[in-house]
User: Which sequence fits this backbone?
């Protein structure tokens, strides 16, 4: 049995990649780790008390999104757990893949302006994941 790491932003835009990860887990007999990364880089010039408040709010939202994903996976008989990390998205995905001993890392296709990646940079990042972690990658 392997481990599928599925990085997710939560919400409706992430349902497709979450469902694809669930389907892959069922097909392969793997468990899923849903990963949400709280990244506050967009707040570089904001005062510290506001950053702390926003970080707490984002963590609460992340817990809710991950709970929803966990429930969908459990309804389909897939073993799942969730993790929240803070920091830079690429670094945290790679570290989570290593920490969780992921055999497959599932990433969603870029969703326009809301995406952290352009398709070409995402493909490059997927190669980096494979080289550093030894895990397969899938773009769904």
Assistant:
């Amino acid at each position: 049995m392997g481990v599928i790491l599925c990085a997710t932003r939560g919400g409706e835009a992430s349902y497709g990649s979450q469902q694809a990860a669930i389907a892959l887990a069922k097909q392969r007999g793997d468990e899923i780790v849903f990963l949400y990364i709280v990244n506050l880089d967009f707040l570089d010039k904001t005062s510290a008390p506001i950053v702390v408040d926003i970080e707490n709010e984002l963590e609460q939202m992340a817990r809710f999104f991950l709970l929803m994903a966990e429930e969908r996976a459990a309804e389909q008989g897939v073993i799942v757990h969730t993790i929240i990390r803070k920091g830079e998205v690429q670094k945290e995905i790679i570290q989570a893949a290593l920490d969780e001993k992921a055999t497959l890392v599932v990433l969603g296709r870029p969703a326009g302006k809301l995406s952290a990646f352009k398709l070409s940079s995402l493909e490059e990042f997927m190669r980096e994941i494979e080289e550093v972690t030894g895990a397969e990658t899938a773009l769904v």
